[in-house]
Specification:
Layout (H helix, E strand, L loop, with lengths): L1 H34 L5 E7 L2 E8 L14 E2 L5 H13 L23 H5 L8 H8 L8 H11 L15 H14 L3 H10 L8 E2 L24 E3 L1 H10 L8 H4 L6 E2 L5 E2 L6 E4 L4 E8 L4 E7 L4 E7 L6 H12 L20 H4 L1 E5 L3 E8 L2 E6 L6 E5 L4 E4 L5 E6 L5 E6 L7 E2 L2
Antiparallel strand pairs: 1-2, 1-11, 3-5, 4-5, 6-7, 8-9, 9-10, 10-11, 12-13, 13-14, 14-15, 15-16, 16-17, 17-18, 18-19
Helix pairs in contact: 1-10, 2-6, 2-7, 4-5
Protein backbone atom coordinates (compact mmCIF):
# COMPACT_ATOMS: atom_id res chain seq x y z
CA UNK A 1 0.00 0.00 0.00
CA UNK A 2 2.90 2.34 0.64
CA UNK A 3 3.85 2.32 -3.07
CA UNK A 4 0.33 3.29 -4.09
CA UNK A 5 0.71 6.61 -2.31
CA UNK A 6 4.21 7.43 -3.52
CA UNK A 7 3.19 8.36 -7.06
CA UNK A 8 0.51 10.95 -6.28
CA UNK A 9 2.59 12.44 -3.48
CA UNK A 10 5.56 12.68 -5.86
CA UNK A 11 3.51 14.50 -8.51
CA UNK A 12 1.94 16.79 -5.96
CA UNK A 13 5.45 17.73 -4.90
CA UNK A 14 6.42 18.44 -8.52
CA UNK A 15 3.34 20.65 -9.06
CA UNK A 16 4.02 22.55 -5.84
CA UNK A 17 7.67 23.01 -6.82
CA UNK A 18 6.72 24.33 -10.26
CA UNK A 19 4.20 26.78 -8.76
CA UNK A 20 6.84 28.08 -6.37
CA UNK A 21 9.30 28.46 -9.26
CA UNK A 22 7.09 30.64 -11.49
CA UNK A 23 5.78 32.74 -8.63
CA UNK A 24 9.35 33.46 -7.51
CA UNK A 25 10.28 34.45 -11.06
CA UNK A 26 7.32 36.82 -11.34
CA UNK A 27 8.11 38.40 -7.98
CA UNK A 28 11.76 38.84 -8.99
CA UNK A 29 10.89 40.47 -12.32
CA UNK A 30 8.28 42.79 -10.81
CA UNK A 31 10.71 43.81 -8.08
CA UNK A 32 13.33 44.70 -10.70
CA UNK A 33 10.99 46.63 -12.98
CA UNK A 34 9.41 48.51 -10.07
CA UNK A 35 12.87 49.62 -8.94
CA UNK A 36 13.43 50.88 -12.50
CA UNK A 37 10.16 52.86 -12.29
CA UNK A 38 8.56 50.67 -14.98
CA UNK A 39 5.81 49.23 -12.79
CA UNK A 40 3.75 50.56 -9.90
CA UNK A 41 0.80 48.35 -9.13
CA UNK A 42 -0.69 44.99 -8.20
CA UNK A 43 -0.82 41.56 -9.83
CA UNK A 44 -3.08 38.69 -8.82
CA UNK A 45 -3.27 35.25 -10.43
CA UNK A 46 -5.79 32.62 -9.39
CA UNK A 47 -6.14 29.01 -10.52
CA UNK A 48 -9.15 26.80 -9.80
CA UNK A 49 -10.57 29.61 -7.68
CA UNK A 50 -7.48 29.78 -5.44
CA UNK A 51 -4.99 32.65 -5.36
CA UNK A 52 -1.56 31.43 -6.49
CA UNK A 53 0.15 34.83 -6.78
CA UNK A 54 -0.71 38.20 -5.25
CA UNK A 55 1.60 41.09 -4.59
CA UNK A 56 2.01 44.86 -4.88
CA UNK A 57 4.97 46.98 -6.00
CA UNK A 58 6.11 50.57 -6.29
CA UNK A 59 4.46 53.81 -5.21
CA UNK A 60 1.37 55.82 -6.05
CA UNK A 61 1.12 59.44 -7.21
CA UNK A 62 1.72 60.71 -3.66
CA UNK A 63 4.89 58.61 -3.46
CA UNK A 64 3.29 56.34 -0.86
CA UNK A 65 4.04 52.64 -1.08
CA UNK A 66 1.41 50.62 -2.92
CA UNK A 67 0.21 47.68 -0.84
CA UNK A 68 -2.27 44.93 -1.60
CA UNK A 69 -4.91 47.13 0.08
CA UNK A 70 -4.22 50.31 -1.92
CA UNK A 71 -7.21 51.24 -4.14
CA UNK A 72 -6.15 52.00 -7.71
CA UNK A 73 -7.94 53.44 -10.74
CA UNK A 74 -9.49 50.69 -12.88
CA UNK A 75 -10.89 53.09 -15.54
CA UNK A 76 -12.99 51.16 -18.10
CA UNK A 77 -13.01 47.99 -15.98
CA UNK A 78 -15.65 50.03 -14.11
CA UNK A 79 -18.06 49.31 -16.98
CA UNK A 80 -18.50 45.74 -15.75
CA UNK A 81 -20.04 47.11 -12.53
CA UNK A 82 -22.38 49.35 -14.51
CA UNK A 83 -23.50 46.41 -16.65
CA UNK A 84 -24.04 44.22 -13.59
CA UNK A 85 -26.07 46.98 -11.93
CA UNK A 86 -28.39 47.05 -14.95
CA UNK A 87 -28.87 43.27 -14.70
CA UNK A 88 -29.65 43.58 -10.98
CA UNK A 89 -32.35 46.16 -11.75
CA UNK A 90 -33.74 43.94 -14.50
CA UNK A 91 -33.87 40.99 -12.10
CA UNK A 92 -35.90 43.14 -9.70
CA UNK A 93 -38.38 43.95 -12.43
CA UNK A 94 -37.48 47.65 -12.46
CA UNK A 95 -36.44 47.72 -16.13
CA UNK A 96 -36.10 45.55 -19.22
CA UNK A 97 -33.13 45.38 -21.55
CA UNK A 98 -35.44 46.16 -24.45
CA UNK A 99 -36.61 49.43 -22.89
CA UNK A 100 -35.82 52.53 -24.93
CA UNK A 101 -33.49 55.28 -23.80
CA UNK A 102 -36.27 57.82 -24.39
CA UNK A 103 -38.42 56.14 -21.72
CA UNK A 104 -36.01 57.65 -19.22
CA UNK A 105 -34.87 60.72 -21.14
CA UNK A 106 -37.67 61.67 -23.56
CA UNK A 107 -35.83 64.88 -24.44
CA UNK A 108 -33.11 62.91 -26.26
CA UNK A 109 -33.61 62.36 -30.02
CA UNK A 110 -32.69 58.66 -30.11
CA UNK A 111 -35.96 56.74 -30.12
CA UNK A 112 -34.52 53.46 -31.40
CA UNK A 113 -31.76 53.15 -28.79
CA UNK A 114 -32.41 50.41 -26.22
CA UNK A 115 -30.72 49.64 -22.92
CA UNK A 116 -29.27 46.50 -24.49
CA UNK A 117 -27.76 48.45 -27.39
CA UNK A 118 -26.08 50.76 -24.85
CA UNK A 119 -24.64 47.74 -23.05
CA UNK A 120 -23.29 46.17 -26.25
CA UNK A 121 -22.00 49.42 -27.81
CA UNK A 122 -24.37 49.04 -30.77
CA UNK A 123 -26.49 52.14 -30.11
CA UNK A 124 -24.93 54.25 -32.86
CA UNK A 125 -24.88 57.28 -30.57
CA UNK A 126 -22.57 60.15 -31.51
CA UNK A 127 -19.74 61.09 -29.20
CA UNK A 128 -21.14 63.84 -27.03
CA UNK A 129 -17.75 65.50 -26.58
CA UNK A 130 -18.08 66.80 -30.14
CA UNK A 131 -21.32 68.54 -29.18
CA UNK A 132 -19.65 70.07 -26.12
CA UNK A 133 -16.79 71.35 -28.26
CA UNK A 134 -19.15 72.82 -30.86
CA UNK A 135 -21.88 74.30 -28.68
CA UNK A 136 -20.59 74.29 -25.11
CA UNK A 137 -17.47 75.28 -23.24
CA UNK A 138 -14.81 72.62 -23.74
CA UNK A 139 -12.68 74.17 -20.98
CA UNK A 140 -15.27 73.09 -18.39
CA UNK A 141 -16.08 69.62 -17.06
CA UNK A 142 -19.74 68.82 -17.74
CA UNK A 143 -21.97 66.73 -15.50
CA UNK A 144 -24.15 64.03 -17.05
CA UNK A 145 -27.25 66.20 -16.59
CA UNK A 146 -25.57 69.11 -18.36
CA UNK A 147 -24.51 66.86 -21.23
CA UNK A 148 -28.03 65.49 -21.64
CA UNK A 149 -29.47 69.03 -21.74
CA UNK A 150 -26.93 70.13 -24.34
CA UNK A 151 -27.52 67.06 -26.52
CA UNK A 152 -31.32 67.44 -26.21
CA UNK A 153 -31.03 71.04 -27.37
CA UNK A 154 -28.72 70.53 -30.36
CA UNK A 155 -29.72 66.95 -31.29
CA UNK A 156 -26.53 65.58 -32.86
CA UNK A 157 -27.32 62.77 -35.29
CA UNK A 158 -26.41 59.15 -34.80
CA UNK A 159 -23.17 58.34 -36.56
CA UNK A 160 -23.93 54.70 -37.40
CA UNK A 161 -26.85 52.45 -38.12
CA UNK A 162 -28.02 50.38 -35.21
CA UNK A 163 -26.49 46.97 -34.52
CA UNK A 164 -23.06 48.04 -35.68
CA UNK A 165 -20.38 47.91 -33.01
CA UNK A 166 -18.82 51.28 -32.12
CA UNK A 167 -17.02 51.71 -28.80
CA UNK A 168 -18.30 54.87 -27.14
CA UNK A 169 -18.01 55.70 -23.43
CA UNK A 170 -21.20 57.77 -23.60
CA UNK A 171 -23.22 54.54 -23.76
CA UNK A 172 -22.17 53.69 -20.22
CA UNK A 173 -22.53 57.27 -18.97
CA UNK A 174 -26.20 57.06 -19.99
CA UNK A 175 -26.53 53.62 -18.37
CA UNK A 176 -25.36 55.12 -15.07
CA UNK A 177 -27.95 57.88 -15.46
CA UNK A 178 -30.64 55.22 -16.02
CA UNK A 179 -29.48 53.34 -12.92
CA UNK A 180 -29.87 56.51 -10.84
CA UNK A 181 -33.31 57.29 -12.27
CA UNK A 182 -34.67 53.76 -11.82
CA UNK A 183 -33.12 53.01 -8.41
CA UNK A 184 -33.74 56.45 -6.93
CA UNK A 185 -30.22 56.63 -5.52
CA UNK A 186 -26.83 57.91 -6.70
CA UNK A 187 -24.88 55.54 -8.94
CA UNK A 188 -22.08 55.31 -6.38
CA UNK A 189 -24.47 54.35 -3.61
CA UNK A 190 -26.18 51.72 -5.75
CA UNK A 191 -22.92 50.02 -6.68
CA UNK A 192 -21.70 50.19 -3.09
CA UNK A 193 -24.93 48.77 -1.61
CA UNK A 194 -25.54 46.08 -4.21
CA UNK A 195 -22.07 44.90 -5.28
CA UNK A 196 -19.20 46.18 -3.14
CA UNK A 197 -21.00 45.59 0.17
CA UNK A 198 -22.37 42.08 -0.47
CA UNK A 199 -19.00 40.92 -1.84
CA UNK A 200 -17.00 42.49 1.01
CA UNK A 201 -15.04 44.62 -1.47
CA UNK A 202 -13.97 46.91 1.35
CA UNK A 203 -11.29 48.75 -0.63
CA UNK A 204 -13.47 49.66 -3.62
CA UNK A 205 -15.38 52.87 -4.22
CA UNK A 206 -16.78 55.12 -6.92
CA UNK A 207 -14.77 58.33 -7.12
CA UNK A 208 -17.13 61.23 -7.67
CA UNK A 209 -15.74 64.77 -7.42
CA UNK A 210 -19.25 66.20 -7.49
CA UNK A 211 -20.15 64.32 -4.30
CA UNK A 212 -17.50 62.76 -2.07
CA UNK A 213 -18.29 59.15 -1.23
CA UNK A 214 -17.32 57.68 2.14
CA UNK A 215 -15.12 60.67 2.90
CA UNK A 216 -12.83 60.09 -0.07
CA UNK A 217 -11.08 63.32 -1.18
CA UNK A 218 -12.08 65.17 -4.32
CA UNK A 219 -9.81 65.38 -7.35
CA UNK A 220 -9.70 67.80 -10.27
CA UNK A 221 -8.39 64.97 -12.46
CA UNK A 222 -11.64 63.00 -12.45
CA UNK A 223 -14.75 64.19 -14.27
CA UNK A 224 -18.24 63.98 -12.77
CA UNK A 225 -19.69 61.65 -15.42
CA UNK A 226 -19.98 58.10 -14.07
CA UNK A 227 -20.64 54.64 -15.42
CA UNK A 228 -17.75 54.47 -17.87
CA UNK A 229 -14.97 54.72 -15.27
CA UNK A 230 -13.97 56.38 -11.99
CA UNK A 231 -14.07 53.26 -9.83
CA UNK A 232 -11.05 52.58 -7.63
CA UNK A 233 -10.39 49.03 -6.48
CA UNK A 234 -7.69 46.52 -5.62
CA UNK A 235 -6.61 43.30 -7.31
CA UNK A 236 -8.02 41.31 -4.39
CA UNK A 237 -11.39 43.07 -4.49
CA UNK A 238 -11.58 42.41 -8.23
CA UNK A 239 -10.79 38.77 -7.49
CA UNK A 240 -13.77 38.65 -5.11
CA UNK A 241 -15.89 40.13 -7.91
CA UNK A 242 -14.56 37.59 -10.42
CA UNK A 243 -15.28 34.65 -8.13
CA UNK A 244 -18.80 35.88 -7.38
CA UNK A 245 -19.60 35.68 -11.10
CA UNK A 246 -19.25 31.88 -10.83
CA UNK A 247 -21.94 31.75 -8.13
CA UNK A 248 -25.52 32.88 -7.52
CA UNK A 249 -24.45 35.31 -4.80
CA UNK A 250 -25.51 38.43 -6.72
CA UNK A 251 -27.58 36.99 -9.56
CA UNK A 252 -28.37 33.56 -10.92
CA UNK A 253 -26.08 32.07 -13.53
CA UNK A 254 -28.91 32.21 -16.09
CA UNK A 255 -28.94 35.99 -15.75
CA UNK A 256 -25.20 36.48 -15.44
CA UNK A 257 -24.49 34.56 -18.63
CA UNK A 258 -26.06 37.40 -20.64
CA UNK A 259 -22.90 39.40 -19.98
CA UNK A 260 -20.80 36.79 -21.76
CA UNK A 261 -22.77 36.30 -24.98
CA UNK A 262 -21.64 37.49 -28.40
CA UNK A 263 -23.76 40.25 -29.95
CA UNK A 264 -25.52 39.73 -33.27
CA UNK A 265 -24.87 42.64 -35.63
CA UNK A 266 -27.07 43.85 -38.48
CA UNK A 267 -24.81 42.32 -41.16
CA UNK A 268 -25.14 38.87 -39.58
CA UNK A 269 -21.69 38.83 -37.99
CA UNK A 270 -21.02 38.58 -34.27
CA UNK A 271 -19.37 41.23 -32.12
CA UNK A 272 -17.06 39.90 -29.41
CA UNK A 273 -18.31 42.59 -27.02
CA UNK A 274 -20.88 41.33 -24.51
CA UNK A 275 -22.04 43.48 -21.60
CA UNK A 276 -18.73 45.34 -20.96
CA UNK A 277 -16.71 42.14 -21.43
CA UNK A 278 -14.67 41.21 -24.51
CA UNK A 279 -15.10 37.57 -25.42
CA UNK A 280 -12.82 34.97 -26.98
CA UNK A 281 -13.93 31.40 -27.45
CA UNK A 282 -12.57 28.35 -29.25
CA UNK A 283 -12.25 24.66 -28.48
CA UNK A 284 -9.64 25.24 -25.79
CA UNK A 285 -10.34 28.70 -24.44
CA UNK A 286 -13.44 30.37 -23.08
CA UNK A 287 -12.12 33.80 -22.11
CA UNK A 288 -13.80 37.01 -21.01
CA UNK A 289 -11.65 40.06 -20.41
CA UNK A 290 -11.97 43.76 -19.79
CA UNK A 291 -9.27 46.41 -20.12
CA UNK A 292 -9.09 49.94 -18.78
CA UNK A 293 -6.66 52.54 -20.08
CA UNK A 294 -6.08 55.88 -18.39
CA UNK A 295 -3.60 58.63 -19.15
CA UNK A 296 -0.83 56.83 -17.26
CA UNK A 297 -2.64 53.69 -16.06
CA UNK A 298 -3.61 50.23 -17.22
CA UNK A 299 -6.04 47.80 -15.62
CA UNK A 300 -7.27 44.42 -16.80
CA UNK A 301 -9.23 41.42 -15.59
CA UNK A 302 -8.96 38.22 -17.62
CA UNK A 303 -11.24 35.29 -16.85
CA UNK A 304 -10.64 31.81 -18.31
CA UNK A 305 -13.98 30.33 -17.49
CA UNK A 306 -13.42 26.75 -18.66
CA UNK A 307 -10.27 26.39 -16.51
CA UNK A 308 -11.33 28.77 -13.71
CA UNK A 309 -8.16 30.85 -14.04
CA UNK A 310 -7.97 34.60 -13.43
CA UNK A 311 -5.30 37.19 -14.21
CA UNK A 312 -5.72 40.68 -12.68
CA UNK A 313 -3.24 43.43 -13.50
CA UNK A 314 -3.29 47.01 -12.15
CA UNK A 315 -0.56 49.40 -13.35
CA UNK A 316 -0.36 52.97 -12.09
CA UNK A 317 1.70 56.09 -12.98
CA UNK A 318 4.01 54.31 -15.43
CA UNK A 319 1.19 52.68 -17.36
CA UNK A 320 2.86 53.42 -20.70
CA UNK A 321 5.22 50.51 -19.89
CA UNK A 322 2.38 48.05 -19.40
CA UNK A 323 2.98 45.96 -22.52
CA UNK A 324 6.48 44.77 -21.67
CA UNK A 325 5.74 44.18 -17.99
CA UNK A 326 2.46 42.42 -18.66
CA UNK A 327 4.04 40.26 -21.36
CA UNK A 328 6.85 39.13 -19.08
CA UNK A 329 4.49 38.22 -16.23
CA UNK A 330 2.09 36.44 -18.55
CA UNK A 331 4.84 34.40 -20.22
CA UNK A 332 6.38 33.37 -16.90
CA UNK A 333 2.98 32.19 -15.69
CA UNK A 334 2.45 30.18 -18.87
CA UNK A 335 5.96 28.71 -18.84
CA UNK A 336 7.06 30.55 -22.00
CA UNK A 337 10.30 32.41 -22.75
CA UNK A 338 10.25 35.97 -21.43
CA UNK A 339 12.30 39.14 -21.52
CA UNK A 340 12.67 41.48 -18.57
CA UNK A 341 11.67 45.01 -19.68
CA UNK A 342 14.55 47.47 -19.57
CA UNK A 343 14.47 51.04 -18.34
CA UNK A 344 14.59 53.46 -21.22
CA UNK A 345 17.82 55.35 -21.59
CA UNK A 346 18.31 58.97 -22.60
CA UNK A 347 21.00 58.87 -25.26
CA UNK A 348 23.57 61.72 -25.09
CA UNK A 349 22.84 62.87 -28.62
CA UNK A 350 24.58 65.73 -30.40
CA UNK A 351 21.65 68.10 -30.73
CA UNK A 352 22.97 69.56 -33.98
CA UNK A 353 21.63 66.36 -35.55
CA UNK A 354 18.13 67.69 -34.95
CA UNK A 355 18.49 70.13 -37.82
CA UNK A 356 18.35 67.37 -40.43
CA UNK A 357 15.32 65.76 -38.72
CA UNK A 358 13.23 68.95 -38.59
CA UNK A 359 10.51 69.01 -41.25
CA UNK A 360 7.23 67.44 -42.33
CA UNK A 361 6.66 63.73 -42.97
CA UNK A 362 3.65 62.19 -44.72
CA UNK A 363 2.79 58.81 -43.24
CA UNK A 364 0.08 56.44 -44.48
CA UNK A 365 -0.24 55.20 -40.89
CA UNK A 366 -0.20 58.47 -38.94
CA UNK A 367 -0.95 61.16 -41.54
CA UNK A 368 1.06 64.38 -41.63
CA UNK A 369 3.70 64.60 -38.88
CA UNK A 370 5.52 67.84 -38.03
CA UNK A 371 8.98 67.64 -36.43
CA UNK A 372 10.29 70.80 -34.79
CA UNK A 373 13.23 71.75 -32.58
CA UNK A 374 13.24 74.17 -29.67
CA UNK A 375 15.73 74.75 -26.85
CA UNK A 376 17.80 71.72 -27.93
CA UNK A 377 14.80 69.39 -27.80
CA UNK A 378 12.97 67.64 -30.63
CA UNK A 379 9.16 67.59 -30.84
CA UNK A 380 6.51 65.75 -32.86
CA UNK A 381 3.06 67.05 -33.69
CA UNK A 382 0.50 65.16 -35.79
CA UNK A 383 -1.52 67.40 -38.09
CA UNK A 384 -3.89 69.02 -37.08
CA UNK A 385 -3.47 68.20 -33.36
CA UNK A 386 -2.41 71.21 -31.24
CA UNK A 387 0.63 71.02 -28.99
CA UNK A 388 3.85 69.04 -29.26
CA UNK A 389 5.15 65.80 -27.75
CA UNK A 390 8.85 65.70 -26.89
CA UNK A 391 10.91 63.03 -28.63
CA UNK A 392 13.47 61.58 -26.20
CA UNK A 393 16.58 60.17 -27.92
CA UNK A 394 17.52 56.51 -27.40
CA UNK A 395 20.18 56.58 -30.15
CA UNK A 396 21.23 58.95 -32.93
CA UNK A 397 18.22 57.95 -35.05
CA UNK A 398 15.68 56.52 -32.59
CA UNK A 399 13.39 58.36 -30.18
CA UNK A 400 10.47 57.68 -27.84
CA UNK A 401 7.65 59.50 -26.08
CA UNK A 402 8.34 59.72 -22.33
CA UNK A 403 4.75 58.80 -21.39
CA UNK A 404 3.81 56.49 -24.26
CA UNK A 405 5.03 53.15 -25.56
CA UNK A 406 5.50 54.44 -29.12
CA UNK A 407 9.09 54.47 -30.39
CA UNK A 408 10.16 56.30 -33.56
CA UNK A 409 13.01 56.06 -36.01
CA UNK A 410 14.42 58.43 -38.61
CA UNK A 411 15.44 56.16 -41.48
CA UNK A 412 18.54 57.19 -43.42
CA UNK A 413 19.78 56.35 -46.92
CA UNK A 414 23.30 55.13 -47.71
CA UNK A 415 24.55 58.74 -47.73
CA UNK A 416 23.14 59.53 -44.28
CA UNK A 417 20.28 61.63 -45.59
CA UNK A 418 16.85 61.31 -43.96
CA UNK A 419 14.49 59.17 -46.04
CA UNK A 420 11.56 59.30 -43.67
CA UNK A 421 10.08 58.77 -40.21
CA UNK A 422 8.35 55.64 -38.93
CA UNK A 423 8.00 53.22 -36.04
CA UNK A 424 11.30 51.96 -34.69
CA UNK A 425 12.56 48.91 -36.56
CA UNK A 426 9.60 48.92 -38.97
CA UNK A 427 10.66 50.48 -42.27
CA UNK A 428 7.31 49.52 -43.77
CA UNK A 429 5.76 52.37 -41.72
CA UNK A 430 8.04 55.06 -43.19
CA UNK A 431 6.45 58.40 -43.95
CA UNK A 432 8.72 60.13 -46.51
CA UNK A 433 10.12 63.53 -45.67
CA UNK A 434 8.30 66.21 -47.66
Amino acid sequence: MRRLFLVPIFFIGLISSYAQEWTKKIDSVLTIVSQDELFHGQVLIAENGNITFHNAYGNNEDNHKITEETPMAITSVSKTFTALSILILENRGLLKLGNRLTEYFPELPYKDVSIKSLLTMTSGLPRFQSTIEEYGDSSKVYTTDQIIKLVAKHKPKSILQREVFAYNNDNYVLLAAIIEKVSGMPYAAFVRNNIFGPLNMIHSYVYNPAQAIDGKPLSANVGPTLGDGHIFSTAHDLYLFDQALYTDQLLSQDILKKSFEFTQLSDGTLSNYGFAWRLHKNDDVNEAYVVGDGEHTRASVQRYMNTRKTFIYLHNISGSNWKGVYGAVRNIWEGKPFEVPKKRIIYPIETNLYKKYVGTYLSEVFGLLHITEKNNKLYLRPDPVPGNEELVPSSETTFYFAEQALEWEFFLDENGNVKGLGLRGKPETIGPKQ
